[in-house]
Amino acid sequence: MSAAALEAVELARSYGARTALAGLTFSVDSGEILGLLGPNGAGKTTTIRLLTTMLRPSSGTFSVAGVPSTRPVDIRRVVGALPESAGYPEHMTGLEYLRYHGRLFGLSRGDASRTSERLLNEVGLAERGLSRIATYSRGMRQRLGIARALVNNPAVVFLDEPTLGLDPAGQRQVLGIVRDIAQRRGATVVLSTHTLPDVEEVCTKVLILARGRVLSAGTVDEVTRVAAAPGTALLRVPTDGIHRAMGALTAVPHLTVEATEGHPDVLRLSLRERPDDHPDSASTALNAALRAVLLADVPVRSFEIEGSRLSDAFLSMTRRSER
Ligand SMILES: Nc1ncnc2c1ncn2[C@@H]1O[C@H](COP(=O)(O)OP(=O)(O)OP(=O)(O)O)[C@@H](O)[C@H]1O
Predict the structure, then answer these.
(1) Quick one: 173 and 72 in the same domain?
(2) Residue 123 belongs to some domain of the structure
(3) Domain range spanning residue 269?
(4) CATH number of the domain where residue 45 is located
(5) Cα–Cα distance, 289 to 267 (Å, whole number)
(6) Which of these, 41, 45, 267, 313, is most buried using a 10 Å CB contact count?
């Protein structure tokens, strides 16, 4: 059995004729935080539901902490999950809620109480453990949901959009907890989100899905470098040189030149087609563009290559997958 905390091999799921997930293969180690990204309908929730055994795969296998997917009851013992829209019993206190879930996992009364108090502390709810959940804010509910997902001391924790709808302070708190889960507990976290800055901030790895397929996987740096790599650039020249610059750029192959709204001195250069997806080919075309403008004696005020952030990578890859 593999040493990875979480491993999937050719995992697929269809709903009738619709393929929600096709051939998902990846692995993550203990203590890693994997960002699961993708536009609506990409297959993120399906992935989480498969890996937490709420859904059966149409084909493929996976393992969690060495437990194979053929043993779903045992998998449930080693995973924890915060679903996308978790509901809570409003009349219970946070402490009662966690104790109840501890008991469901077979903890003794004493252990369930001790574990619940420790978890309330871990998610910053120690002061509010005796208040009814009805009085909790959205951020407090999310943190309680994360505490619940940790009740069985899982090897892998799945969090579906944990920062959705939280204010910046609430987001910070949740991301701090996510980091602690990985660093202090040594657990693996799978974080499904649309919030790219969250991923850049806490994730060690990223998996980008679109239409049920993997578009890219690797560290944040790798994904950003390969996908977003210099695909567009902003060129600033004196306003009276703009037509000359445009004329010079028409000779550069694979390049689209557009004006930018509200900035008469700025042109956006992008690659019309890519002979291959190698980042160097994009750099070569943009370098040729810059050279052409300089050879036409147009003074270049600035030349900024875009695409060094994960959000650019995400947009460029998901846009390409729509074609
Ligand atoms: N129960 C179902 N029956 C039929 N089709 C489904 C079902 N659940 C999901 N799908 C389809 O499977 C695909 C993947 O959906 P999924 O919910 O996994 O995407 P997602 O990435 O989580 O999207 P979102 O970001 O909107 O939550 C979509 O095309 C969706 O319409």
Answers:
(1) yes
(2) no
(3) 229-306
(4) 3.40.50.300
(5) 11
(6) 313
Q: Assess contact for 151 and 115: CB atoms under 8 A.
A: yes
To test the pocket of ligand 1, the residue of 11, 13, 14, 15 to mutate (highest count of ligand atoms within 8 Å of its CB) is 15
- Return the best residue to mutate from 46, 195, 213 for the ligand 1 pocket (most ligand atoms within 8 A of CB): 46
pLDDT in the model for residue 260: 86
> In angstroms, what is the span from residue 42 Cα to ligand 1's centroid?
7
ipTM for the whole predicted complex goes beyond 0.85 = yes
For the stretch 260-292, pLDDT in tens is: 888 999 998 887 765 455 555 666 778 889 999
Q: How does pLDDT run across 167-219, given as a tens digit for each residue?
A: 989 999 999 999 999 999 999 999 998 888 888 889 999 999 988 998 888 88
Using the mean position of ligand 1's atoms as its centre, give its distance from the Cα of residue 98 in Å.
Answer: 30
Nearest residue to 203 (alpha-carbon basis) of 182, 184, 185: 182
Task: Output the CA 172–ligand 1 centroid distance in Å.
Answer: 28
Q: Is residue 237 part of a domain?
A: yes
Q: What is the pLDDT of residues 177-188, one digit of tens each?
A: 999 999 999 999
pTM (2 d.p.): 0.78
Q: Are residues 168 and 235 in the same domain?
A: no
Q: Are residues 279 and 216 in the same domain?
A: no
Distance CA 45, CA 177 (A): 21
